[in-house]
């Protein structure tokens, strides 16, 4: 286990009472950001038929619109560490939330170009939040509670994602602007988050009181660390699994004889199981810094779920296994990005690396699986491959789940 980094040592010098006083406020700020990381994205899929009909967008361009955020996540993530080194975590988070609000508005302007430009802008802002949150958790939450707070904010992300999917069509039917107005609803979450972070920036609450003018030493992403690659591989494979399920599960279930309506409810059930899993994880792992077996087990659940999909009439069992496994894997993948770093600056660097790899894999996975299905005319090969990748995820999770820290020298 490595020695604490300079940034962690400085944070440790803060009086315990000061840390306790700021922890609740920090968690509230973290959860407000988490609410904004999926709200503007998950409603696009259900609104896509209306968008295509109104704008004349082809199915190919509609698919590009839904894949664009993942591509932007992968493109933006490597630069977040550099921006954080220059601006500081809090200031950069404020900028990201302001840009998210701007992108949300631009996307709803009556123009096809604005639809894509706004999506690019808001996706880049969300990528910044994705990378910074593990760093903020690492900085302001006691090490023994990092996995708990990570699980909570992942749960909040999932809940808001489900709400966004559910209310987007009713909002489009009720609001004067139709689907454009429905796409903008997430701004009601962005503005409060921006206000809270502006207030925290003004009070300088996110800088160690011992030296409020001090800037942490710049760090780089730990490309030469084996543990960092294990964390990144786990992040990448769980992202591939999740986004592939979101993209193709209804089609797979329809192929087994379900109706489109039934497959939609099964996707909802899958997401509900994921929320249950991420909520249960802190209870299962309470007091344990070593999470090897939990990370491996939830991955095996996913592998089993893909195989069960091959059995006719077992859709509910398959979705239960997939939801429990992928929900737990996501919560662990995010907590590893905080836990395996020596300090909060290093956590941002590790998160930048893990999410760069993760979203590159996630963006290509559903596309490649669709090509495989087209080539074979069936889902059997695709499901076997997904199951094998899930076993690989179990191996990566077992390694990443060890109670170890990446040496500070790996970030130089």
From TrEMBL:
A molecular function (GO) term: transmembrane transporter activity
Membrane topology (UniProt): Multi-pass membrane protein
Keywords for the protein's UniProt record, in alphabetical order: Membrane, Transmembrane, Transmembrane helix
Subcellular location(s) per record: Cell membrane
Transmembrane segments: 21-48, 60-81, 88-106, 112-133, 145-167, 179-199, 231-253, 265-285, 292-309, 315-336, 348-372, 378-398
Superkingdom, taxonomy of origin: Bacteria
All copies of domain Major facilitator superfamily (MFS) profile, residue ranges: 22-405
Pfam families named among the record's database cross-references: MFS_1 (PF07690)
Gene Ontology CC: one annotated term: plasma membrane
PANTHER family referenced in this protein's UniProt entry, alphabetically: 2-NITROIMIDAZOLE TRANSPORTER (PTHR23523:SF2), PTHR23523
Name this protein carries in UniProt: MFS transporter
Organism of provenance: Corynebacterium alimapuense
